[in-house]
From TrEMBL:
Residues 12-23 have a biased composition (Basic residues). This is Beta-lactamase-related domain-containing protein. It comes from Rhodanobacter denitrificans. Residues 315-334 have a biased composition (Low complexity). Residues 1-30, 43-65, 310-334 are annotated as: Disordered. It comes from the Bacteria.
């Protein structure tokens, strides 16, 4: 579907008032974007009583997070580890990609939750590493619902959005919103409005004006922003060995849902998000009313760069790095390596099923899973051999033996086990 040319949606915030490109007052259309800050704020600001009291009760009774919330892929992880991205939970959106799902909104929420409940392995042991995963926020959303006894949307409205007077914010997929746009190779744009079917890691509908209210309350310490809650946001996460939990993807420490970076001795908070035709960035100084809120309804716009420019942040100092030996260019996969992939494989945890056959230097995969009513056929072409012998193409990584196939999707799903089964 081709939409009209996407317009210039830039707006400027001056002294808490939303202005047009040259400082004129402007009414801003609603935007829908996967604002992961939403669920993070629900725990940190909207529901400290629900979240913290639930954790206290679990500690007093000696129960783990898994015992409290039923079968849970977080295992023995703590709420703090989920918030700090150190729990090792697999990313449900990446698992959906491995299941051949292109449109997250087309999958029933119960099917995704059932898949996550079936997991009995993590990307890593809780507390041992830090890696970003949307699965952490999906688990937090489920925990909020279980502790509060209410749907996340209702709880967030009562505990967070209403107290902050965020009148145009919520998890309402039917709300009137600005279209999102993705550019077409042939020119022009297509409308790209899909929202995730499960709230938690995304799906929040909001406006720049409401986010100003959120930020103003943070700065003043009003309402839900108690000193204890603010301190939780500003405290970097820690690994089990005491080291600061820095996310390699961002290169900075991570607090309770926000990146924490010091430049010239100044602490900055940030969080970005993106899905379909929407991009967003929230950036602010921790100690002063300086920052930027950028909402974009074009996928080819970089909100991070816009926020940096509007905030007048100094560029980060270049980091000296040890010289690395030159790496050999990956070589095309051999016919023998491709032949090792051929066959019928199934993941016992996710019930994703791959029927793989060789196809012109790569493989063609017929994917079946509980997430889709019909099989999905994908071509995994251009397979190359990594330095350690694994086969890679894009974010996919495949490691095959006679009876097992380990599948990774970037760092968000690592070594998901498939077993060879009879046709």
């Amino acid at each position: 579907m081709r939409g009209r040319d996407a317009g210039d949606g830039r707006r400027v915030l001056r002294r808490g008032r939303l202005c047009g490109p040259r400082g004129r007052r402007a009414d801003h259309p609603r935007h829908a974007f996967p604002d992961r800050l939403g669920i993070q704020a629900v725990h940190g600001a909207g529901g400290p009583e629900a979240g913290r009291s639930g954790a206290r009760r679990a500690r007093r009774s000696g129960r783990t997070l898994a015992a409290r919330s039923g079968r849970c892929p977080a295992g023995r992880a703590t709420v703090r580890q989920l918030l700090n991205q150190t729990a090792g939970v697999r990313d449900h959106t990446s698992l959906m990609a491995l299941a051949g799902i292109e449109r997250m909104a087309a999958v029933a929420p119960d099917a995704v939750l059932a898949m996550m409940r079936g997991l009995d392995s993590n990307n890593f042991a809780p507390g041992s590493q830090a890696r970003y995963s949307n699965g952490h926020y999906l688990m937090l959303a489920q925990l909020v619902e279980r502790v509060s006894g209410r749907p996340l949307a209702a709880f967030a409205h009562e505990a967070l959005f209403a107290p902050l007077d965020m009148r145009d914010t919520g998890f309402d997929a039917s709300a009137p919103i600005a279209h999102g746009y993705r550019p077409l190779r042939s020119g022009g744009f297509r409308i790209a409005d899909d929202q995730p079917s499960l709230p938690g890691s995304g799906g929040l509908v909001t406006t720049a004006r409401d986010l100003v209210r959120f930020d103003t309350a943070f700065r003043s310490g009003e309402g839900v922003w108690s000193p204890a809650v603010k301190a939780m946001f500003l405290e970097p996460g820690r690994l089990s060995n005491g080291e600061t939990a820095a996310l390699p993807e961002f290169g900075t420490p991570y607090g309770a849902g926000v990146g924490l970076e010091r430049r010239d001795g100044v602490l900055w908070l940030s969080h970005d998000g993106g899905s379909e035709g929407f991009r967003a960035q929230y950036l602010r100084r921790a100690d002063a009313p300086v920052g930027a809120i950028v909402l974009c309804n074009r996928s080819d716009v970089n909100p991070d760069a816009i926020a940096e420019r509007l905030s007048n942040r100094t560029a980060p100092e270049p980091q000296a790095s040890a010289a690395r030996p030159p790496r050999e260019a990956p070589q095309p996969a051999s016919s023998a390596a491709i032949a090792a992939l051929v066959g019928h494989w199934r993941s016992p945890e996710t019930r994703i099923d791959y029927a793989i056959r060789a196809n012109n230097g790569g493989v063609q995969v017929t994917i079946r899973s509980p997430l889709a009513a019909e099989p999905v056929v994908e071509d995994w072409g251009g397979l190359e051999v990594a330095a350690d012998g694994g086969l890679i193409t894009g974010p996919l990584r495949l490691e095959a033996t006679a009876d097992t196939l380990m599948v990774s999707f970037g760092n968000r799903v690592r070594r998901l086990r498939f077993e060879r089964v009879a046709d």
